Amino acid sequence: MYRSHTCGELRLTDENKIVKLSGWVQKIRNLGGMTFIDLRDRYGITQLVLDVESRKDLSTQARQLGREYVIQVTGKVAERSNKNSKMGTGDIEILVDEFVLLNPSDLPPFTIEDETDGGDELRMKYRYLDLRRNPVRRNLELRHKLGFEVRNYLNKQNFIETETPVLIKSTPEGARDFIVPSRMNPGEFYALPQSPQVFKQLLMVAGFDRYFQIVKCFRDEDLRADRQPEFTQIDCEMAFVEQQDILSTFEGMTKHLFKTIKNVDFDFDFIQMTFDEALKNYGSDKPDLRFDMKFVEMKEMLGQTDFVVFDDAEYVGGICAEGCAGYTRKDLDKLTDFVRKPQIGAQGLVYVKCNTDGTFKSSVDKFFDEAKLAKWAEAFGAKPGDLLLVLAGPTDKTRKALCELRLEMGNRMGYRDKNKFAPLWVVDFPLLEWDEKTNRFHAMHHPFTSPKKEDLALLETEPGKVRANAYDLVINGVEIGGGSIRIHNDELQHKMFQLLGFTEQDAESQFGFLMNAFKYGAPPHGGVAFGFDRLTSLFAGIDSIRDVIAFPKNNAGRDVMIDSPSPVAEDQLDELNIELKKAK
Amino acid sequence: MYRSHTCGELRLTDENKIVKLSGWVQKIRNLGGMTFIDLRDRYGITQLVLDVESRKDLSTQARQLGREYVIQVTGKVAERSNKNSKMGTGDIEILVDEFVLLNPSDLPPFTIEDETDGGDELRMKYRYLDLRRNPVRRNLELRHKLGFEVRNYLNKQNFIETETPVLIKSTPEGARDFIVPSRMNPGEFYALPQSPQVFKQLLMVAGFDRYFQIVKCFRDEDLRADRQPEFTQIDCEMAFVEQQDILSTFEGMTKHLFKTIKNVDFDFDFIQMTFDEALKNYGSDKPDLRFDMKFVEMKEMLGQTDFVVFDDAEYVGGICAEGCAGYTRKDLDKLTDFVRKPQIGAQGLVYVKCNTDGTFKSSVDKFFDEAKLAKWAEAFGAKPGDLLLVLAGPTDKTRKALCELRLEMGNRMGYRDKNKFAPLWVVDFPLLEWDEKTNRFHAMHHPFTSPKKEDLALLETEPGKVRANAYDLVINGVEIGGGSIRIHNDELQHKMFQLLGFTEQDAESQFGFLMNAFKYGAPPHGGVAFGFDRLTSLFAGIDSIRDVIAFPKNNAGRDVMIDSPSPVAEDQLDELNIELKKAK
């Protein structure tokens, strides 16, 4: 037996017990004939005391020790003279009687502390050491708890967790597939799933009624800062449901998670905001509703002005930053620089200070007198002391820039508290979006999404205006999940493939089995998928998903710890009937 | 809303309620002006009654219906005149008032009944219809429940479920890897994990203390009847443990599963049988202990005989089949044919009937008189009425054949009841096994398995005799799980790689990161992995794992439903920097 207790377990009530502990040496201090060791494991830290003065043997052993050595000790639990109320075990210490060195340690390349001196690359290379750090390990513990509670909730709701295959079939639609050469079927390949979409739909055809799975998915994309080639979805599907049934079920799940994990009560129905509203009011289909600061559209109010920037603009709109009229020239210059950054792309920023004395001061005083600015203030619902920030330009682009400005102001004004949560459903997404590059419609969600019944007639005439039974769960400006009611009728599905530019042959070879399945009594169904990495990072209060993944890959898709991907032996390729492309 | 209740829910207490149901048409019967429909969903079957005589509209609709049509009905719950006690809903029926056809169905290619007329290939091609059948769906529901209870148990025991990567690195050791070309790293490949072995060990180095994961693993093997290229493991690892700690924890899990899922109580400690004992007594490292019929070794007792078959044999041993002395010539011929089958490989079978009158009759009467046979009977503990079956030959081969004979007799004698469960741990496996083909030692378990401390000295002198801290959980003759205490010392690990014929360079390039991790305070650790497919099939009482997998592949590794693997587009290979091998 390596231990009788963990390092986080002992209390004053255990006084005088003889215990055995194992763990890592966090810290060693020598103090007048005594050596104090902080012994650490996953569960906590316990202070060990070695009387090196009277016990020469212990003294010798203690002298060998260094940080991260693994030791086992036996000793008596004693009350501490100077207690540490910050630690669960802070009332006691162990008077060590026996001592075993289980494994020494080289000096770690960075400190194993909450705040480490290790840079990102180093931490990833030695991820097994990085994972020893409390904040990283706690994220993974949180991930475990979230998964556990998701399953608890869905199990109670009669969902069946069903594994779908990982070795499936490549479909050129959407992002790039990772593919896997088949040795037994020369010249043929499996693909790794970008999502279990068609399988979960087949499970509905199979009458499984309620399916879920916490499942790895794969996308061979050029990785942006916060994308991973393999990621995890909470994937769900239900039969005999309408949109509201799904929203209710998963709003319930979200509330369950917040209650059980963070003790947050949402004792209200989540807002359901249409895609159009979201864009109009917040310039984004994932608005951060931790604060209001809704867009005010000004074009109509303005009418014809002498200010050519406004007159030429398709869109003029702004936000009201409460109590920010005191912003200095420098503050405002910084904001102007912010909106002009290439990734934001506004031409400039118009501001109006609603001074506390009732006067106005704006960057467009030349064009708009106090009376006109007062009218603006009224439209914005601004009070003395507030600051109006206005952008102008093409509608879509300007809304997007204004959204960024709103979020920036939210940050500056302290509205984006990581411990506050503002969930909403965004609904009524467009079914299709026009792709300039390929000059055809793409499915906004995926080709299995059902159009709204009331918009069906538009499919022939104005496909771009058709709304879908599609919805996203957004929390704090982050898309946590999304889904749709699916098409369950093979004719409508055929028409969708047509609209999306599939040839009859392509549709058949890629999705023939699904079309075929729809011929045998497919029930109405729909579902949703949550980004498990993203959900966990939201709960952890961190921005990157990388630190909620035990062994993430870097932006080049590499695992720098195991040094993968890597070349493979020639005969391995031979067996698989492939070879590397010769340089030309 | 598509339904107010499921098809398995309504009882007599719901009488007179107006309800809405949705589901599939299982059966239609016309009876004197009434049409009866069995409406089916995952939860059960409810009888619908359509008064087609007085309601012409319903009559028209009902006439369109066929098997597997999806319909929605509204009606009143009524008491049945002829109740069906076999169905939960058997006391009631629905007097249908409204009727919606949700989706028609082509005639299914096989009947959706518990016993179907569909052959294997057809069922796999239309798996979504096969999954509608109760026995198949129940297996998947069982799988869900098992996974859920595994998680419940391990969560209570402080295990953290942690996802390890699927895109990892190819290592030539062991079975063949599936590999995945990397687009972003031309000429390099990921591999799919055969198990998360090294990652779970790294999580122990990381101080995670207790890890588990229900996880897909991959092996590119030539598939035997009951192998799948992707399969699921319950993968577990613990730090600061000795072998007995792990056995206790997972014996607890096994008991929990049997109790919660099958209401079976194991109120005893599982037998721990050494590998040597298992081979000696049952000729297998996975003995079926639902019945005893232990081997009796006879060589010593026999001494020198006149029977050259015994005298020349390295091994002579047999089993006693209780009460089988009445076997006819024909029965015994069949058994002789059985042991002579090439896959069993015995030369012949010696039998001794212990007649109820106290006499003996054997196939070797010429060589052994009654007194000698009486001595045999005594050695076997045989009573009058029993039958002794004896094989002779080389030890390993003969034990194996005798094992098969024992199982065959177990079948014939009804000892192998699928509702009886006999668990045991097989322990003390050899560390290494000699491979005749490559003329070197292979790791019996895997290269990270720790030798027993007391056998360490033999590593240099007689490596083949070293026993490992390795163990298997065996139930009813099936290996359900296996694991080992791992090496946590980098020197010992290096020595193991040496013994296994790794060059320094190979060990470094393949497992350098693990060796390196061991330098930073690796704790003692060990673990176990259970075959989740196998476990589920054991609980389901079926022999094949295929029917506990939602979408299995056939013996050629093909998914015949989605027709995968399949060729991919040339430009997809181009992007991945590979090409198909040209025929030479």
Folded structure, characterized:
The structure is a homodimer of 584-residue chains. Chain A has 584 residues and is an alpha+beta fold. Chain A has 3 domains: 12-103, Nucleic acid-binding proteins (OB fold (Dihydrolipoamide Acetyltransferase, E2P)); 138-272 and 424-548, Bira Bifunctional Protein, Domain 2 (BirA Bifunctional Protein, domain 2, 2-Layer Sandwich); 291-416, 2-Layer Sandwich (Gyrase A, domain 2). Chain A contains 17 helices and 23 strands. Chain A has helices at 56-64, 120-125, 127-130, 134-156, 197-205, 243-262, 275-282, 299-302, 308-312, 329-340, 370-380, 395-412, 458-461, 490-499, 504-517, 532-540, 570-576; strands at residues 18-31, 34-41, 44-51, 70-79, 92-103, 160-161, 179-181, 189-191, 210-218, 230-239, 271-274, 296-297, 315-321, 350-354, 360-362, 387-393, 423-427, 432-435, 440-443, 470-475, 478-485, 525-531, 578-580. The first copy, chain A, has an 8-stranded mixed β-sheet, sandwiched between helices. In chain A, helix 4 (134-156) crosses helix 6, helix 4 packs across helix 16 and helix 14 (490-499) runs antiparallel to helix 15 (504-517). Chain A is globular, with a radius of gyration of 30 Å. Chain A starts with 17 loop residues before the first strand and ends with a strand. At the A-B interface, helix 3, helix 4, strand 6, strand 7 and strand 8 of A face helix 3, helix 4, strand 6, strand 7 and strand 8 of B. Strand 23 of chain A pairs antiparallel with strand 23 (578-580) of chain B, so a sheet runs across the interface.
